[in-house]
Design a protein that fits this description.
Layout (H helix, E strand, L loop, with lengths): L8 H10 L5 H14 L35 H15 L4 H15 L7 H4 L17 H11 L3 H4 L3 H6 L4 H7 L11 H4 L1 H4 L6 E2 L5 E2 L1 E9 L2 E5 L8 E5 L3 E5 L5 E2 L4 E2 L16 E6 L3 H4 L1 E9 L5 E10 L7 E13 L9 E4 L5 E4 L25 E5 L29 E4 L4 E6 L13 E5 L5 E6 L11 E2 L2 E2 L2 H4 L11 E4 L6 E6 L12 E5 L5 E6 L6 E7 L18 E7 L5 E6 L9 E7 L23 E2 L4 H8 L7 H4 L31 H9 L9
Parallel strand pairs: 2-26
Antiparallel strand pairs: 1-2, 3-29, 4-5, 5-6, 6-8, 7-30, 9-10, 10-11, 11-12, 13-14, 14-15, 15-16, 17-18, 18-19, 19-22, 20-21, 23-24, 24-25, 25-26, 27-28, 28-29
Helix pairs in contact: 1-14, 3-4, 6-9
Protein name: HHIP like 2
Family: Belongs to the HHIP family.
Keywords: Disulfide bond, Glycoprotein, Secreted, Signal
């Protein structure tokens, strides 16, 4: 059975901690032998262990790889220079006879399969000096040009034994799978079909990989950048603490902001209250203002959500001034769930707030619920101008073009309505070249019992709740009201797929060009990751599941192929790269949250294209270096005689369509072994109305 599947790290750790000490030899044997069983299959990969790319300029020498490969102009010039150095030692007849062979062999460093050709993927063998050659081709080369072998490699073993021994030489250059030797690798249609495109597995899901960038967080609900060219990331925990992460991956020991004594948060699994949102002012670099959205209890014991303005400390750029808080807006919450939580700034410079419908189930408030009632702030998208004050004393202005400013039956703050509980919205940066899509606001709206949906927000739009859920009727009477005039989702899915949508981002980064134009989001309860892409002709959105966990696709150093199940939020950094936050135990007090960055293993941007120079930041607090969980786990299984390089063959998990590579927790069931001290809280959470998921 062990030979039929990859053995996950956690299984090895479990075996080590549960088996008697006398089994240490067996475990050592297991970890030594597994790498040879699970030889990594060939896949596009360069000698720097990263994906291939499209060179930005024409390659003069290794031109066969100028559309997709592992060489830029500098590398191409370097190979050409080496070629001519070799040819200086060869007579004119040798030029004609051997020049093509030598060029082909040298240019394999540019092949999109270079790592496989040079055995860089195989953890059991050293890197080759020469690429893997198919036997027939190798025999021809040796017959015509065996005297050139000493010029191509400085490997003494090859030089001394193989110049005159064709069979031995070609056996040394042989690789296990004949499909991947040169030149067969160029002729294999399966290997070259859609080369450089996002990989689809047999289940027709996109194969992406992850790198872990943070861990040990208590329900990380958001990650944001200040757009101040420092490329710092600000990560907020549900309990009310914001941490600063520097571009080198380290975290500052002292938090940016700590208001956990004010924030209403509990250890209950799935409790939706807490610190929920944060956004930096568009002019933060100049005015130091940012805004937060959180739950709290006022002096009358009423539960409310509060949106506040704060400023950065005048003495430390990495600390907020907690005494600068200025209340912008407070809304009473009639129930403990559906608190909304998104705050962001649009391209127009105005603040957008996304509130829940007030909670309970089915929006039972009033004749047709809060969401359809434009005279209340719940169940809405609100738009305000925080750079001024209203004549009536409110600490903000109403934009003159808000859609309902002239409607006496509507509050002027309302920008859109019919919202149930939008959890995570984002602004599209637009295509990096054409700017198409720039400024669109995407949101995930959590459903009731049947459907989850993704919406694009438009001014004055009615998003249907509680008349509709997804594309279908929820309240039959309201649904058939001729005045409903609702805006349909761009996508909706049923609860067989997931039960609590987490809105994501349109990828507009630089490092993974294949992902441009994909809206990537997930589901909190099922752990699925999904991508949507718009058909430019029909303007309909096509859905594709995302698979993470293929060992073949993610066999790059630093990449991982599993993640914690409960997807809380998504984020993009200052350069536009995409991340998501997840936890294995969704309690605001459980430090099991991690942050992952998406990586496309099929194609990267050309070297140098995505470089940025962060503005230096003066740091007064101690830096805490990042330690990946995978590194911590690997340390547990470094038995005598086993190296980290050997362990590469054992650290693999299967790719499950649309979900994490771990056991499924169906129906929002709690993990079998909650952290110590959490069992009583877990039993309370089962009866809690929010236990289905963080955003239910």
């Amino acid at each position: 059975m062990l030979l039929g599947k990859c053995l996950p790290i956690l299984m090895i750790v479990h075996l080590m901690t549960s088996l008697p000490s006398g089994t240490a030899c067996w475990l050592r044997l297991l970890t030594e032998r597994l790498p040879s069983v699970y030889m990594l299959l060939g896949h596009p990969q360069c000698l720097d262990y990263r994906p291939p790319f499209q060179p930005p300029f024409h390659l003069e020498f290794c031109s066969a790889y100028e559309t997709f490969g592992c060489c830029d102009q500098d590398k191409d010039n370097s190979i050409a220079s080496r070629y001519w150095d070799i040819m200086d030692y060869i007579d004119p007849r040798g030029h004609k006879l051997c020049g093509g062979y030598i060029k082909d062999i040298l240019c394999q460093e540019c092949s999109p399969y270079a790592a496989h050709l040079y055995d860089a993927e195989n953890p059991q063998t050293p890197l080759r000096n020469l690429p893997g050659l198919c036997f027939d081709y190798c025999s021809e080369f040796h017959f015509n040009c065996h005297s050139a072998i000493t010029l191509l490699t400085n490997d003494k073993h090859i030089q001394e034994c193989c110049e005159k021994n064709k069979t031995r030489f070609c056996n040394l250059l042989d690789i296990q799978d004949p499909d991947y030797c040169f030149p067969n690798v160029l002729k294999n249609t399966d290997l070259n079909r859609n080369l450089g495109s996002v990989v689809e597995d047999t289940k027709v899901c996109l194969q992406l990989c992850l790198t872990e960038v943070a861990n040990g967080l208590r329900n990380p609900v958001l990650m944001a950048h200040a757009n101040d060219n420092t490329h710092r990331m600000f990560v907020a925990e549900q309990v009310g603490i914001i941490w600063v992460y520097l571009p080198d991956g380290s975290r500052l020991e002292e938090p940016f902001l700590d208001i956990k004594k004010i924030v209403l948060a509990t250890p209950w699994v799935g409790d939706e209250r807490g610190f929920l949102g944060m956004a930096f002012h568009p002019q933060y670099k100049h005015n130091g203002k940012f805004y937060i959205y959180y739950s709290y209890v006022d002096k009358k014991k009423l539960e409310k959500i509060r949106i506040s303005e704060l400023k950065v400390s005048a003495s430390d750029i990495n600390k907020a001034d907690p005494h600068s808080e200025r209340n912008i807006l407070e809304i009473e919450e009639p129930a403990a769930n559906h608190n909304g939580g998104q705050v962001l700034f649009g391209l127009d410079g105005y603040m957008y707030l996304f509130t829940g419908d007030g909670g309970k189930a089915g929006d039972p408030f009033g004749k047709f619920g809060n969401a359809q009632n434009k005279s209340v702030l719940l169940g809405k998208v609100l738009r305000i101008d925080v750079d001024g004050k209203s004549p009536d004393g409110k600490p903000y202005r109403i934009p003159l073009d808000n859609p309902f400013v002239s409607d006496t039956k509507a509050l002027p703050e309302v920008y859109a309505y019919g919202v149930r509980n939008m959890w995570r919205c984002s602004v599209d940066r637009g295509d990096p070249v054409t700017h198409k899509g720039r400024g669109r606001i995407f949101c995930g709206d959590v459903g009731q019992n049947r459907f989850e949906e993704i919406d694009i927000i438009v001014k004055g739009g009615n998003y249907g709740w509680r008349a509709k859920e997804g594309f279908e009727c929820y309240d039959i009477k309201l649904c058939h009201n001729s005045s409903l005039d609702d805006i349909l989702p761009i996508f909706a899915y049923g609860h067989s797929v997931g039960k609590s949508v987490t809105g994501g981002y349109m990828y507009r980064g630089c490092e993974s060009p294949n992902l441009n134009g994909l809206y990537i989001f997930g589901d909190f309860m099922s752990g699925r990751l999904i991508a949507l892409q718009e058909d430019e002709r029909t303007h309909k959105w096509k859905k594709q599941d995302i698979c993470i966990g293929s060992t073949k696709a993610c066999a790059f150093p630093g990449l991982i192929s599993s993640y914690s199940k409960f997807i809380i939020s998504f984020a993009e950094d200052e350069a536009g790269e995409l991340y998501f936050m997840a936890t294995s135990y969704p309690s605001a007090y459980a430090p099991h949250g991690s942050i992952y960055k998406f990586v496309d293993p099929a194609r990267r941007a050309p070297p140098g294209k995505c470089k940025h120079k962060p503005v230096p930041v003066k740091v007064k607090s101690k830096r805490i270096p990042f330690a990946p969980l995978t590194s911590k786990w690997s340390a547990l299984i470094l038995l005598p005689g086993t190296t980290v390089r050997q362990l590469r063959g054992t650290l693999c998990t299967s790719c499950e369509q649309g979900g994490p590579a771990q056991d499924s927790l169906k129906g929002g069931a709690l993990p079998a072994a909650p952290p110590s001290g959490a069992r009583l809280r877990a039993s309370r959470a089962r009866a809690h109305p929010c236990a289905r998921g963080l955003r239910r």
